[in-house]
Amino acid sequence: MANDIKKTGRILRAPENFVDPVLAHEITSKGLSEERRGFLRKSFLAAGAAMAGGVPLARAAMPDGDPNILNLPEHSTTLGQPVVTNGYGVPSKYETNLLRRESPGLTRVGAASVSFAPLQGLFGIITPSGLHFERHHQGWHDIDPSKHRFMINGLVKNPKVYTMDDLMRLPSVSRMHFIECGANTAMEWGNVAVPTVQYSHGMLSCCEFTGVPLSVLLEDCGYDKKNGKFVLAEGADGSSMTRTIAMDRALDDVIVAWGMNGEMLRPENGYPLRLVVPGVQGVSWVKWLRRIEVGDKPYATKDEAIHYIDAMPDGMYRQYTSVQECKSVITTPSAGQMLLDKGFYNITGLAWSGRGKIKRVDVSVDGGRNWRTARLEGPVNTKCLTRFNINWVWDGSPVVLQSRAIDETGYVQPKINELREVRGTRSIYHNNAIQSWKVSESGEVSNVQVY
Ligand code: MTE
Fold it and tell me: How many Å from the N-terminal Cα to the C-terminal Cα in the chain?
């Protein structure tokens, strides 16, 4: 370890972190041209003077002294800004390029679209609330909580309507869980499609959610224990988002949530109330939740009969596939970034499983021929993102980086060809294949598919 990190390599961050929005658009809409890529590399290297073989871990003293030490900066000699300059704190002005972003051309209107979380720039496992991905079918609203009502009806003895105040007086729980849209990585089913991990895996976030267990509310309404086999969750937005959830799951760990990362949900994420369905694809996490109905059979609504279903190779469709299977991705180094030196790199990424905890993550730097086991950073929670890290020394030769997660059920994340053998090539949803990032001799990292 100590030997590994004597010479660390430098990474040019993914384009979205250092280029202007116009160039980011260029990259995401048509891919970066060879010429443009060459230009970017040259301009960065000119600014940084690359050293083959890595840069020393700590700077040697400069002969004439480092002006950043010798000249006292303004912030050391003047009065800083007072408290409450920002009543609600915002990120540093030096971090303004780290944004959730829409993939240009993915949908025709922004109200029925997706914004992707910038996974390449996040640390640990918690997604900052303002960077949580968004998926709206018909736009988002900032609903007045004093007017929001939540109803439970159907096969229950006492149908009830709750106000937000009613709900927030009940015993609550706080749990960390990931949410992943069933369509995350969908564009990669056929072939390589997108330029960075933000767009390939960014319909993924992880927060601490607070709310009342749905089981408490179902008991409160006296649900029919004999015939009540399913619940239907309904949102208050214009998309009439409705999803069926089996009763055993509804009674297990589903939360009717108002809190996210210690504060109220953000409007984009369902303020004031959303369903949290741990381990299950995002579409079932109904936002702006207004109703739960108890029934005796699946409801086969539009969002489960014709959307979020899997096209199978025999021409049939599989419905109600809801669990997000075990998956992982290396977030650094990842496509769009560039390794500027040979030397030490910390390979880092995220792993998750809708069936429980992550047991192990293996990392390969030779396209899956050899694997080493990565360090899992705690906490390793159930149905939650798990951060992994592993040391790596790049010798400057071309390599393919991959991560492979294994969950506590023993399920092993498949290769893309293994997934295609079972699921065919016409699927959109539920692509949990191993992701490959190619590092070329020039240090450029790109999205590839390696079997
Ligand atoms: N709930 C309502 N009411 N309306 C919606 O459009 N989108 C669903 C789900 N819940 C949606 C909804 C989908 S497809 C996903 S992936 C998640 O919300 C996204 O949640 P987020 O926007 O908080 O990331």
Answer: 31
Q: How far is the CA of 349 from the centre of ligand 1 (A)?
A: 25
Q: What is the pLDDT of residues 257-302, one digit of tens each?
A: 999 999 999 999 999 999 999 999 999 999 999 999 999 999 999 9
For residue 44, what pLDDT is reported? 46
Q: Are strands 289-295 and 149-154 parallel, antiparallel or unpaired?
A: parallel
Q: Exposure string (b/e) for 416-446, b if CB count within 10 Å is 16 or more?
A: beebbeebeeebbbbbbbbbbbbbeeebbbb
Token look-up 């023993």 returns: 410
The reported pLDDT for the residue numbered 55 is 75
- Ligand 1 pocket mutation, candidates 287, 289, 307, 322, criterion most atoms within 8 A of CB: 287
**77 exposed, middle or buried (CB, 10 Å; 0-12, 13-18, 19+)?**
exposed
Which helix (H) or strand (E) segment is 70 a member of?
A: helix 67-70
Integer angstrom CA distances of residue 350 from 23, 120, 143, 253: 27, 10, 33, 23
**Cβ proximity of 447 and 192 under 8 Å:** yes
Residue 16: C-alpha distances to residues 118, 174, 244, 295 (Å): 9, 33, 38, 47
Q: State both tokens at 340.
A: 């500027």
Q: What share of the chain is helix, strand, coil (3-state, %, to 5)?
A: 20, 30, 50
User: Does residue 309 contact residue 337 with C-beta atoms inside 8 Å?
Assistant: no
Beta bridge mates, 320:
none
Which residues in the chain come in under a pLDDT of 50?
Answer: 43-51
Ligand 1 is surrounded, with C-beta below 6 A, by 132-137, 181, 235, 237, 239, 241, 268-269, 282-283, 285-288
Residue 289: count other Cβ atoms within 10 Å of its Cβ: 25
pTM here is 0.93
